[in-house]
Amino acid sequence: MRTRSLLTALLMMAIPAIAAAQNNTGGSGWTVNRNVNPGDFGSWTGDQAVQVPGSGHPGEWTTDGQAQWISAWDNFSGPGGVGDYNRLTDANHRYTYLFTYTFAAPLSGGSIAFEMGWDNILKSFAFDNSGALTPVSNYNISGAGQQDPVDQWFGFCRTGDAMYSSGNGTCTTSFVLPVTAGATSITFELWGDGQTDGMWLAWDQSSIPTETVPEPATMTLLATGLAGLAGSSIRRRQRRTES
């Protein structure tokens, strides 16, 4: 009976630590890899820190007051950037950006929801443990007044070439992505012409599935307690055999 009581107590001590596992809400967590098409303006080697400007963003970058601005450039535009991207043919595609966010803990299976805007064209999503999710229109939750398909329009409010008309109340687009359990990061692939290239993102934090992992100290305590119980049981059997 005492053995059972001790085991129950150890398990109850482990439960609060499991519930308090780290949530995927924190930190900057962003890097960007910028590739430049042949004949254009130099390239980065490997991942770099993203720029998260706090003010003075381009007028098209309407965030609805919730999104985080994320750019490869501290002034929103790169060398040789010209606002001449052709959204239908991808002409003047000078830069490819891979914006990667690393979660605070691995994800469990399920789905993740967010709203975002982009400049110029959104090409794909990818978790680190699965293939590219493309076309992005497959994962779009259409909103009122939204153009379709989303992978052929600029991701902001501007009449004629963007996801929403100028003055629209909403200028971000909704997505829901399936998650493969164990994913530790997500990458957003954008193509741009070098002028005001970037993205703005608002997570639905309640939709981010986390994988709860017991704290190391709790697991050590649990293992020590179980080992002690096993030793106690063996000693009692030995005493009964000797007697």
Structure, explained:
- The structure is a single chain.
- With 243 residues, the chain is an alpha+beta fold.
- The chain folds into 2 domains: 41 residues; 184 residues.
- Helices cover 19% and strands 28% of the residues.
- It contains 2 helices and 13 strands.
- The strands form 3 sheets. The chain has a 6-stranded antiparallel sheet with strand order 2-1-4-12-6-7, with no helix packed on it. A 5-stranded antiparallel sheet has the order 3-13-5-11-8, with no helix packed on it. The chain has a two-stranded parallel ribbon with strand order 9-10.
- A hairpin with a 4-residue loop joins β6 and β7.
- α1 runs antiparallel to α2.
- The N terminus is likely disordered.
Counting structural domains, the number is 2
Number of strands: 13
Ends: how far apart?
22 Å
| H/E series | HEEEEEEEEEEEEEH
Class from secondary-structure proportions: alpha+beta
Overall mean confidence score, pLDDT: 74
Provide the spatial order of strands within the biggest beta sheet.
2-1-4-12-6-7
Sum this structure up briefly.
This protein is an alpha+beta fold and 243 residues long. Helices cover 19% and strands 28% of the residues.
